[in-house]
Design goal:
Largest sheet: 4 strands, antiparallel
Radius of gyration: 17 Å
Order of helices and strands: EEEEEEEEEEEEEEHE
Low-confidence stretches: none
Strand content: 35-45%
Distance between the termini: 41 Å
Length: 171
């Protein structure tokens, strides 16, 4: 089947537990049924394309629009919309394993209301600016920085102690 979307998709689609497919489009989000029918369209007041969607444990769908991080409930209603710094849109949000925190780039937000939080934001080793949160299936939080994947660790830990992978060794 093919779904007739109201605008071209951007980013990677997200798949919910009930097999609903969520697709970010220019100016919003579309829910598509497993048989290819558009269930609903959420229209944002932000024009422009955005990164892909992510379905959290609660069933809420998170995506980045120009200038905002948006949460949409499974019924298509707005959960919350929080302004974000910068206009980078290509990164898909991440959600903590317990579903309480939404990460976008190096920022954290309360999944219930979108308010900024420091939950899960450990200190980078040696003051390295963290770029992107990565949540493993076991709930461990990691951070991407340049060619490194780092464990979320406390203050005073060296880069070598926090490093899980250094891709520079593979180039």
């Amino acid at each position: 089947w093919e779904a007739a979307l109201p605008a071209p998709p951007t980013g990677t689609p997200a798949l919910a537990g009930d097999a609903t497919i969520y697709v970010v489009i220019d100016g919003g989000l579309v829910a598509v049924t497993p048989d290819g029918q558009v269930r609903w369209q959420f229209a944002s007041d932000d024009a422009g394309a955005a990164g892909g969607a992510l379905v959290g444990p609660s069933g809420d769908v998170y995506y980045k629009s120009p200038g905002s991080l948006v949460a949409v409930h499974p019924d298509g209603s707005l959960g919350w919309k929080t302004p974000t710094t910068g206009t980078v849109m290509v990164d898909t949000p991440r959600v903590s394993a317990d579903g309480q925190t939404v990460y976008w780039r190096n920022l954290a937000f309360d999944a219930a209301d979108g308010s900024p939080t420091s939950a899960g934001l450990g200190l980078a080793p040696q003051g390295i600016p963290l770029v992107q949160a990565v949540v493993a299936c076991d709930g461990q939080l990691y951070w991407q920085y340049d060619v490194w994947l780092l464990r979320d660790v406390g203050e005073g830990v060296t880069l070598e102690e926090a490093t899980v992978v250094n891709w520079e060794a593979y180039t």
